[in-house]
Amino acid sequence: MTANTSAFRNRFELLSKVRPALYILVCALFLSLAIRAQEPRIITFDAPGADTTPGDYNGTYASSINVAGFITGSYQGADTVYHGFLRRPDGKFTTFEAPGADTTAGSFNGTTPTSINDLGVITGYFSDATGLSHGFLRTPTGKFTTFDVSGAGANGTFPIGLNLEGAVVGYALDSNYLFHAFLRTPDGKIHAFVGPDSCDTGTSTGCYGNEVTAINFLGISVGNFMDNSGNFVGHGLIRYPDGTLKSFEAPGAGTGTDQGTSCPGCAAGLNQWGAIAGTYTDNNNVHHGFLRSPNGKFTTFDAPGAGTDGYEGTGCFSDCPTSLNDSGSIMGTYIDTNFVYHGYLRTPDGKIVTVDPSGSVFTWSSGMNDFGAITGYYADANGVYHGFLRTQD
Fold first, then answer.
1. Any idea what DSSP says for residue 227?
2. CA-based angle 369:282:336, to the nearest 5?
3. Short-list 177, 168, 119, CA closest to 148
4. Distance of CA 336 to the CA centre of its chain
5. What are phi and psi of 390, to 5 degrees?
6. Backbone φ, ψ for residue 12 (5° rounding)
7. Which residues contact 357 (CB under 8 A, 6 or more apart)?
């Protein structure tokens, strides 16, 4: 026992000398082995102050979970304002407002966190009194930094993804309501960019443009864009740390109007090894899931129970997030034949299970950590939204 303990200590002393991102990543993988045998269960929750009476999108919206089990998201109060929250692993909440967020009752403005990294840093956006959105970073001690992408003149700046070093990716809308992808580096420099031959006419014509929604600790980021073919076909987009852009197509992706790889607002999953998970829409407008390995090999899949008619399937036509952890598990959403939304978890061996809290009539899985714990939100029969946590297998 003493020899084994000493060897274990030596491994971690060695790991402590490498970059912090890799250290935390490997620690997470060690810990995941210790808890893998636990049975999964679903815990539901409401942020303090969340309005749980039937109304206009009332309730709690969990958006992201980190390796330690901290969950962030937003809730709508009785004032119809969105407020940020942080839920600790012990179930205790901290609520917060980004500086400059409009908290006027009835405004539907406020603070919307979108991602939390494994160090507890949170990114997201807030809406001011004019309805314009701005990006923010919140440290674990509650200190805020706000920022805007240059030229974001229509709806503003929307951070979506965050890595361990503090780099942020997302999208911004210009005065023509055209989406531009952006990367904000940890030193505060912002790089806006668009995919090759991307459409440039704006949302009034059906062109949603570009977005990047996930970034790993190597600085590789992934997103999507619509092309300029006239059909606004979607394509996957990878940005490498040197600024090089590469597009990709999932096999079977359609080339008709609003078909292709990914969809507007659909956040792709990206892990530290460079594997990518997401959705594509075929020529019949049916959605399917895909996994792209770091060397570009694709595996496609469908969740059991997913519908096979137009606008059904694994994924959706807008804003469906997909998560991919470092063990190879994938989390996402599927639509059944009754057009009901469900969450799913695909394990590394290809097994897919449904993730639905009891009483859900609509489930939206939002984020997953390296332990396989999933968070998101669901609507009950009264149309009130609640957060949920599905613990790891």
1. B
2. 60
3. 168
4. 22
5. -100, 115
6. -75, -30
7. 42, 44, 363, 378, 386, 388
For residue 124, give both structure tokens. 């997201």
CB 74 within 8 A of CB 82: yes
Please name which of 43, 46, 70, 44 lies closest in space to residue 58, comparing C-alpha atoms: 46
Greater confidence (2 vs 56) lies with: 56
Distance, CA of 37 to CA of 80 (rounded, Å): 42
Specify which residues 222 forms β-bridges with: 214, 238
Cα–Cα distance between 110 and 172 in angstroms, integer?
A: 18
User: What 8-state DSSP symbol labels residue 203?
Assistant: G
Q: What residues pair up with 162 in beta bridges, in sequence order?
A: 168
Distance of CA 372 to the CA centre of its chain: 15
Q: What is the identity of the amino acid at 141?
A: T
β-strands 82-87, 71-76 pairing? antiparallel
Closest residue by Cα to residue 373 from 110, 10, 89: 89
144-201 pLDDT, tens per residue? Answer: 999 999 988 778 999 999 999 999 999 999 988 899 999 999 999 999 999 999 999 9
pLDDT one-digit tens code per residue, 83-123: 999 999 999 999 999 999 999 999 999 999 999 999 999 99
For residue 28, pLDDT beyond 70: no
Kindly report the number of other CB atoms within 10 A of residue 379's CB atom.
19
Give ∠ CA 30-36-38 in degrees, rounded to 5.
140
Q: Which helix (H) or strand (E) holds 123?
A: strand 122-127
Q: Which two tokens stand for residue 269?
A: 């999953």
Name 331's Cβ contacts closer than 8 Å, sequence gap at least 6. 269, 322, 323, 324, 343, 344, 345, 346, 355, 365, 367, 368, 374
Reduced to 3 states (helix: H, G, I; strand: E, B; else coil), residue 15 is helix
Please report which residue ranges of the chain form alpha helices under DSSP H: 2-15, 20-35
Decide: 19 and 27 in contact? Cβ < 8 Å: no
Other CB atoms within 10 Å distance of the CB of residue 82: 25
- What span, in angstroms and rounded, lies between the C-alpha atoms of 189 and 183? 8
* Element at 63 (helix H, strand E): strand 59-65
In eight-state DSSP terms, residue 288 is: E
User: Are the C-beta atoms of residues 313 and 302 closer than 8 Å to each other?
Assistant: yes
Q: Which residues contact 33 (CB under 8 A, 6 or more apart)?
A: none
Task: Indicate the domain borders of the chain.
Answer: 1-35
